[in-house]
Amino acid sequence: MRVDVITIFPEYLTPLREALLGKAIDKGLLELGVHDLRRWTYDVHKAVDDSPFGGGPGMVMKPQVWGEALDEVCAGDTPRLIVPTPAGRPFTQAMATELAQERRLVFACGRYEGIDQRVIDDAATRMPVDEVSIGDYVLVGGEVAVLTIVEAVVRLLPGVLGNPASHQQDSFSDGLLEGPSYTRPVVWRDRAVPDVLRSGNHAAIARWRRDQALERTFHRRPDLLEALPDSALDKHDRKL
Ligand code: 6GU
Question: Which intervals hold domain tRNA methyltransferase TRMD/TRM10-type (predicted)?
Answer without folding.
Answer: 1-226
